[in-house]
């Protein structure tokens, strides 16, 4: 039976996608849930799992081509799906070129994933989450583990014991290595003379990835259309830093996300944006659109590109809520799991440039927004405090790029000073 | 009643409650006890015997048989600066006070945006196994633990009772303090002299082990400990966690233990359906799924409307230690 694979909808507002890379070629076998094509939309890359087990008969859309959602991408000849038998039950032997072990026997060595899965005794269908995870972590082949639990069940300790015995028989993480979360791709050696963003080779040209193309286009567009102006304040973050230090361990323990300076900063930015609505607006030909939504984009640096996922309705969050929301979205960004919906709709951007040690930066406005602020590195400096005394305080520069068509320097400076006051008023004992 | 300030004293659970209340009344003129028969009768378990003579009827108040009023009056006292320690004579009688506790006490801080708090303690004996029949045996914790704004503690050892009752009296918000009546005179232990508190929301590992985590509270902690000790003789290692506080719940201690043992058994006397164990198992499934090496199990009261008076019915309701041993063994060797 042939199954036509179509362009999936990767996000509620997505209408088309580009084939970034075929992970399989015609004639390759593919298992149900195994990633077989990488698709990029706007700025998101996603690996798409196969809905069936089978062999790729035809690839219809070539790499680099963009097609609408629902367009046919490839045809897979489904195997092992006899009428009435669900394809999930057991992949048919024809799905693999590997040798099949005799029925009922427990193979101790096997070179084929499917062969093992096929002949796995019942006990393997009932492995616990811990066994599954430990087997993957220790690269233990479960078919070679002798179960000591009830009815021969493989226990977590059995896996750990097998791992201690040595890796010889356990080179391949077998059926446990389900392709639902696609495993790290093998690093195939690059052909001579090629170069990537992660490993640039002098004298070569790096082929532009979809994401890099979009970044280039956006940056150019922004710099060409919005006249950028720039201003900066320095903020004493000693007290808010102390507050954070007091709360961070408990917060991490209870909420499961780190409590960094970022949520305090974003919280203050949101309050200041409410006080200065012009900073949360965009220039249009009809006039300056002052926005109701307060959707804060967070610039997240990744290995080979930059993403700006958005916390929607950021004015609905407490500081703690922002920490969790930011933690989640940054985790998703790093895992490459952002959807297009995570990335759209930003009205103002915060860029944590200080994370890389920067003291001053002049950011480029993002997506037609009126402003972008940076949090530069926090450094201890001697500063003059009340009564002309000199004290050592934790200082942070905050830089603002603004669209000068929308706001003038006076408002921008007032906004920054307001932000400064709010942050300097925060300290231990406040409400997270 | 002489009070030493250092060293320890051996006492049972009922004496621990009595001593803590006595010391609180001595130390803080804002405190008072109120409830049915707490004055002239000295409480049905003789916890407050002699108090009315020493502290007078304004601080040891005999109330009518009207639980809604006991809770409601205590709430008003608490909001206006006193530290009432109200008693519901048996947990079975708390239902008329439900509205006051859930609808008023738990929401006071939130409703007034922090202008008012409700530093109220409601003590009540709960639990069965004492031939208390239908109206002297219930467990009520699951009816209340759904309610944010309410703290619930259920210590099972005399030293924990004293530390947690002191913490409850100090707490600026309402605390429901549950005392398992079968442990009252059954359980004895060393109690530090002088004033001390145990933080609400901290569980206690009463017996360390590494092959199975057992979470319990109240009377069953003692049976679970007995079961764990029996299994130790067979080389099986069971960790017994005494929750002590039901809400807030000590997530950290439970999750750390389950990550170590990879197996979880929850034991409580209250009905299984929607009980405390349901919340614990959901929490562990959410946060430690990939550490679990066996299905989570629960040993709890059956879904029947009440504990019967007949011994056969009561036995059927209660979980015997032998069943705890069997279940623990099955889970360790699973």
Descriptive account of the structure:
- The complex is a heterodimer of chains A (432) and B (334).
- Chain A is of the alpha+beta class and 432 residues long.
- In chain A, 26% of the residues lie in helices and 24% in strands.
- Chain A has helices at 113-119, 129-138, 156-165, 210-225, 238-255, 261-275, 319-334, 340-343, 409-425; strands at 2-6, 16-22, 29-30, 35-41, 44-49, 54-59, 66-68, 72-78, 228-236, 281-284, 287-290, 296-301, 306-307, 310-311, 348-351, 371-384, 390-403.
- In chain A, the strands form four sheets. In chain A, strands 9, 12, 13, 14, 15, 16 and 17 form a seven-stranded mixed β-sheet that branches.
- In chain A, a hairpin with a 4-residue loop joins strand 12 (296-301) and strand 13.
- In chain A, helix 6 (261-275) crosses helix 7 (319-334) and helix 6 packs across helix 9.
- The longest helix of chain A has 18 residues, at 238-255.
- The N and C termini of chain A lie far apart (58 Å).
- The relative contact order of chain A is 0.11.
- With 334 residues, chain B is of the alpha/beta class.
- Chain B has two domains: 8-192, Rossmann fold (3-Layer(aba) Sandwich), CATH 3.40.50.970; 204-333, 3-Layer(aba) Sandwich (Rossmann fold).
- Chain B has a seven-stranded mixed β-sheet with strand order 3-2-4-5-7-6-12, sandwiched between helices.
- In chain B, strand 2 (31-35), helix 2 and strand 3 form a beta-alpha-beta unit.
- Chain B is globular and about 60 Å long.
- Chain B starts with 7 loop residues before the first strand and ends with a helix.
- The chains are: A alpha+beta (432), B alpha/beta (334).
- The interface between A and B is medium-sized, with 13 and 12 residues.
What is this structure, in a nutshell?
Chain A has nine helices and 17 strands. Chain A has 432 residues and is α+β, with helices and mostly antiparallel strands.
């Amino acid at each position: 039976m042939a199954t036509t694979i179509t362009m999936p909808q990767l996000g509620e507002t997505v209408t088309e996608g580009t084939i970034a890379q075929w992970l399989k070629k015609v004639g390759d076998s593919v298992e149900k849930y195994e990633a077989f094509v990488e698709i990029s939309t706007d700025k998101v890359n996603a690996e798409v799992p196969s809905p069936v087990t089978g062999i790729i008969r035809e690839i219809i859309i070539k790499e680099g081509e963009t097609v609408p959602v629902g367009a046919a991408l490839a045809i897979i000849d489904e195997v092992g799906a006899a009428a009435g038998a669900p394809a999930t039950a057991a992949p048919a032997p024809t799905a693999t070129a590997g040798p099949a072990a005799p029925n009922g026997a427990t193979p101790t060595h096997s070179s084929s994933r499917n062969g093992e899965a096929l002949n796995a005794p019942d006990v393997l269908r009932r492995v616990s989450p811990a066994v599954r995870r430990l087997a993957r972590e220790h690269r233990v082949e479960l078919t070679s583990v002798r179960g000591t639990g009830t009815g021969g069940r493989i226990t977590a300790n059995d896996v750990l014991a097998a791992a201690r015995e040595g890796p010889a028989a356990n080179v391949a993480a077998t059926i446990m290595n389900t392709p639902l979360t696609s495993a790290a791709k093998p690093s195939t050696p690059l052909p001579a003379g090629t170069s990537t963003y992660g490993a640039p080779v002098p004298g070569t040209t790096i082929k532009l990835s979809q994401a890099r193309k979009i970044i280039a286009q956006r940056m150019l567009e922004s710099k060409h259309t919005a006249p950028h102006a720039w201003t900066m304040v320095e903020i004493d973050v000693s007290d808010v830093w102390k507050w954070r230090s007091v709360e961070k361990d408990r917060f991490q323990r209870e909420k499961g996300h780190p409590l960094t300076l970022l949520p305090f900063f974003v919280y203050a930015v949101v309050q200041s944006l409410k006080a200065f609505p012009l900073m949360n607006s965009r220039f249009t030909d009809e006039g300056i659109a002052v926005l109701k939504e307060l959707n804060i984009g967070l610039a997240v640096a990744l290995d080979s590109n930059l993403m700006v996922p958005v916390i929607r309705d950021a004015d609905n969050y407490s500081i703690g809520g922002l920490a969790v929301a930011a933690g989640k979205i940054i985790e998703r960004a790093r895992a490459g799991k952002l959807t297009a919906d995570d990335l759209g709709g930003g009205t103002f951007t915060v860029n944590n440039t200080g994370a890389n040690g920067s003291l001053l930066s002049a950011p480029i406005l993002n997506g037609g927004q009126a402003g972008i602020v940076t949090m530069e590195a926090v450094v201890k400096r001697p500063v003059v405090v009340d009564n002309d005394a000199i004290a050592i305080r934790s200082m942070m520069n905050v830089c603002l790029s603004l669209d000068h068509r929308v706001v003038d320097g006076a408002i921008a400076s007032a906004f920054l000073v307001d932000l400064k006051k709010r942050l300097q008023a925060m300290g231990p004992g406040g409400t997270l | 009643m002489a009070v030493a300030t250092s060293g320890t004293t051996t006492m049972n659970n009922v004496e621990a409650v009595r001593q803590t209340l006595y010391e609180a009344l001595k130390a803080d003129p804002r405190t008072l006890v109120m409830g049915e028969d707490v004055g002239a009768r000295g409480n049905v378990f003789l916890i407050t015997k002699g108090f009315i003579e020493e502290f007078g009827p304004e601080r040891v108040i005999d109330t009518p048989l009207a639980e809604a009023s006991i809770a409601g009056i205590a709430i008003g006292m608490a909001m206006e600066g006193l530290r009432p320690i109200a008693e519901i004579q048996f947990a079975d009688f708390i239902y008329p006070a439900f509205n006051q506790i859930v609808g008023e006490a738990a929401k006071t801080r939130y409703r007034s945006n922090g202008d008012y708090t409700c530093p109220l303690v409601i003590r009540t004996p709960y639990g069965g196994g004492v031939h208390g029949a239908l109206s002297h045996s219930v467990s009520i914790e699951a009816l209340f633990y759904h309610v944010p704004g309410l703290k619930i503690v259920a210590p099972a050892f005399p030293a924990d009772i004293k530390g947690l009752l002191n913490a409850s009296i100090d707490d600026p918000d309402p605390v429901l303090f549950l005392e398992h009546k079968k442990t009252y005179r059954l359980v004895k232990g060393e109690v530090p002299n002088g004033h001390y508190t145990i933080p609400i929301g901290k569980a206690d590992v009463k017996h360390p082990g590494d092959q199975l985590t057992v979470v319990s509270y109240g009377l069953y902690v003692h049976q679970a400990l007995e079961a764990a000790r029996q299994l130790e003789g067979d080389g099986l290692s069971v960790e017994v966690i005494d929750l002590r506080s039901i809400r807030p719940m000590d997530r950290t201690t439970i999750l750390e233990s389950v990550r170590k043992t990879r197996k979880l058994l929850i034991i409580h006397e209250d009905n299984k359906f929607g009980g405390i164990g349901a919340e614990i198992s959901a929490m562990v499934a959410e946060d430690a799924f990939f550490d679990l090496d066996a299905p989570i199990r629960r040993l709890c009261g059956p879904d029947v409307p009440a504990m019967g008076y007949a011994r056969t019915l009561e036995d059927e309701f209660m979980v015997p230690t032998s069943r705890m041993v069997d279940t623990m063994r099955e889970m360790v060797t699973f």
